[in-house]
Design brief:
Length: 125
């Protein structure tokens, strides 16, 4: 799962700093679906997420331009919920929210959440 990249530019003591963080990783878990009002359903899912975090930094100090890279991997979790509708007995459409807990443990442990909203289509045969 590729959860995207966050980029930030900021001034630190008058020096322009640039950083980006990319999070990827495999996950395994379970999902439940509960049908109500004929064709409507709610879903819930959760499980294990092995986050792989890559961090790049650059300091644009006029005297010295510095840059660095680091990557780390840590075990964590994910969870999500959704709401959907069975259009036909074979086709359903839904909207979902998922939250992935990522960790970066290099010199200091940094924990952050990556939220994802999605639209889903499921065809059953």
């Amino acid at each position: 799962m590729n959860l995207g990249k966050v980029t930030d530019d900021f001034l630190d003591e008058g020096v322009l700093q640039h950083s980006n963080i990319r999070t990827t990783g495999p996950f395994a878990g379970a999902a439940l679906k509960y049908h109500f009002l004929d064709a409507w359903y709610v879903s819930a899912r959760g499980g294990f997420f092995q986050s792989s975090v890559k961090i790049r930094t650059r300091s644009d100090n006029p005297a010295v331009i510095e840059s660095g890279r680091s990557s780390t991997s840590a075990s964590s979790w994910y969870a999500g919920a959704g709401l959907g509708y069975d259009v036909t007995p074979s086709l359903s459409l839904g909207v979902n929210y998922d939250n992935y807990r990522s960790k970066a443990t290099e010199d200091v442990t940094v924990k952050f959440n990556v939220a994802m909203f999605s639209v889903s289509a499921e065809y059953r045969f």
